[in-house]
């Protein structure tokens, strides 16, 4: 019914009628990402890859086609590089992601990207967290060995993986030397704040009235958690500032961690706290979730796990740094295939446009919310053979995914966008290269040190939809410590 001409004879992308946000879910319970998935599945099936919902007075347009996503994010990159604003952004208000597309965003993004490109910083942080991850798993396996009925110990490694990934990114963000106790409190605060955020609000999909209704009962708790987070991170930053002023270690001469780079930019306290929140928040849950899906796949596909082990056996004598620099096509393929089939983020962060644009045969009005179906594109039946099957070989030489990277090259065509786990174009994830390198390195260490065997009940691969789509049941597996 709303296909009537809107602008220059073109109509808006098809939407359900009446124009209510996430129809059918609004009145019974707060709308969730699961209900969004459901509504979009039906709309795409009925109307094709470009559809709209209504977030209050604004259309929210969803694109689930790699070709159209390529036109929007790459060809019309500058037009689609804007983010919608929010009346309350809390801890996120000064982040790169919420920055208006312009000079401040450019400065913060360049700073983050060059910090993440510093090879020696990444290598140092990785060495210590990979070491402690292997030790913790060995201890967990030893503790559980008594309960095992032969053939290794049954463990639930999720918490250990999460701890290692958090430790790695905390070392990159705040530098080495922050106490375990402080990191524990910081992790607890991240969990608390995230549990209080209304999921769909993160995608700018809720009309203001609904936001007020959903946030009202949790507002005080959210403010209190944010205040405690602010105090803790300010104390860590102050300690880091003092270290630099006193010239402890080589840090004063060579800015290493993210906080050092922020101190160099002369930002205010609130800005730095917000940027640290964003760093840890953007990095940890996504990377941990990806790691869990990869390990679940390796437990499920014993042949792929063995092939991976054979493949990395040749690098056993190398140092950590040498291994990270060497190209490892099969490990890369395993990580890419897992990111295609199980992207941690099923949608990008919300984009918006600074003018009316025509896309496909529709008009996208200025200021609309625009988002892209990451999971739908990665599992598209016309783009991938047997898209629901886990086949890393498709990314090897001669395979249908050969040449496809986790981030589409700006010069490539739409075929480069057959998967977009990190987005594409100007707002694509600046942490993509670090995340994939770290995933490959953790996976190598975990497969080199342990054998991962399914328990009798198998592996539950059901998804738990959310801002980050995790496994519904945490991984539960048998591990055997390898002797060599
Ligand atoms: C497996 C791990 C990760 C995944 C799947 C992931 C995914 C994404 C996605 C889908 C976006 C939205 C892109 C868009 O809206 O077009 C994004 C943005 C972003 N990510 Fe990541 N990310 C990961 C790791 C990281 C890491 C390690 C960092 C930094 C330490 C990071 C920092 C950011 C930032 C700052 C943005 C906003 C960029 C901007 O608005 O300019 N992410 N990420």
UniProtKB/TrEMBL annotation:
Belongs to the cytochrome P450 family. Gene3D superfamilies: Cytochrome P450. It is found in: Membrane. GO terms for molecular function: heme binding; iron ion binding; oxidoreductase activity, acting on paired donors, with incorporation or reduction of molecular oxygen, NAD(P)H as one donor, and incorporation of one atom of oxygen. This is Cytochrome P450 89A2-like. It is a single-pass membrane protein. InterPro entries: Cyt_P450 (IPR001128), Cyt_P450_CS (IPR017972), Cyt_P450_E_grp-I (IPR002401), Cyt_P450_sf (IPR036396), Plant_metabolite_P450s (IPR051103). GO terms for cellular component: membrane. The keyword Nucleotidyltransferase does not apply. SUPFAM superfamilies: Cytochrome P450. Keywords: Heme, Iron, Membrane, Metal-binding, Monooxygenase, Oxidoreductase, Signal, Transmembrane, Transmembrane helix. Pfam families: p450. Its cofactor is heme. The lineage of its organism: Eukaryota, Viridiplantae, Streptophyta, Embryophyta, Tracheophyta. Heme binds at residue 429. The keyword Iron applies.
């Amino acid at each position: 019914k709303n296909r009537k001409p809107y602008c220059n004879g073109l109509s808006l992308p098809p939407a359900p009628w009446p124009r209510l946000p996430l129809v059918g879910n609004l009145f019974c319970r707060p709308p969730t990402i699961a209900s969004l998935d459901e509504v979009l599945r039906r709309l795409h099936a009925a109307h094709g890859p470009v559809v709209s919902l209504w977030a209050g007075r604004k259309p929210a347009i969803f694109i689930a086609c790699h070709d159209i996503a390529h036109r929007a994010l790459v060809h019309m990159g500058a037009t689609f590089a804007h983010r919608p604003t929010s009346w309350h952004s809390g801890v996120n208000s000064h982040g790169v992601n919420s920055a208006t597309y312009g000079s401040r965003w450019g400065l913060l993004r360049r700073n983050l990207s060059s910090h993440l490109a510093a090879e020696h910083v990444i290598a140092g942080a990785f060495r210590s967290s990979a070491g402690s991850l292997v030790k913790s798993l060995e201890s967990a396996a030893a503790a559980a060995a008594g309960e095992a009925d032969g053939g290794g110990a049954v463990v639930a490694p999720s918490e250990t993986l999460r701890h290692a990934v958090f430790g790695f990114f905390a070392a990159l963000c705040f530098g080495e030397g922050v106490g375990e106790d402080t990191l524990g409190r910081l992790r607890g605060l991240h969990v608390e704040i995230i549990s209080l955020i209304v999921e769909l609000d993160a995608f700018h999909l809720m009309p203001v009235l609904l936001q007020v209704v959903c946030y009202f009962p949790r507002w005080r708790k959210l403010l209190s958690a944010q205040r405690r987070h602010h105090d803790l991170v300010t104390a860590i930053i102050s300690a880091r500032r003092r270290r630099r002023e006193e010239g402890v270690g080589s840090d004063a001469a060579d800015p290493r961690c993210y906080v050092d780079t922020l101190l160099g930019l002369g930002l205010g306290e609130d800005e730095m706290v917000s940027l640290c929140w964003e760093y840890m928040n953007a990095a940890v849950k996504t990377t941990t979730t990806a790691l869990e899906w990869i390990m679940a796949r390796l437990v499920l596909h014993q042949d792929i796990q063995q092939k991976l082990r054979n493949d990395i056996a040749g690098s056993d004598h190398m140092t950590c740094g040498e291994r990270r620099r060497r190209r490892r096509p099969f490990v890369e393929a395993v990580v890419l295939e897992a990111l295609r089939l199980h992207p941690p983020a099923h949608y990008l962060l919300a984009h918006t446009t600074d003018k009316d644009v025509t896309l496909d045969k529709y008009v996208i009005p200025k200021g609309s919310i625009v988002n892209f179906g990451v999971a739908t594109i990665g599992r598209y039946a016309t783009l991938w053979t047997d898209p629901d099957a886990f086949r890393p070989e498709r990314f090897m030489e001669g395979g249908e995914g050969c040449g496809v990277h986790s981030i589409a090259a700006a010069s490539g065509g739409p075929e480069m966008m057959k998967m977009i786990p990190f987005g594409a174009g100007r707002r694509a994830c600046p942490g993509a290269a670090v995340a994939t390198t770290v995933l490959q390195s953790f996976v190598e260490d975990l497969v080199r040190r342990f054998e991962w065997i399914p328990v009798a009940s198998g592996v539950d691969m059901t998804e738990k939809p959310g801002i980050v789509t995790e496994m519904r049941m945490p991984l539960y597996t048998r591990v055997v410590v390898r002797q060599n």
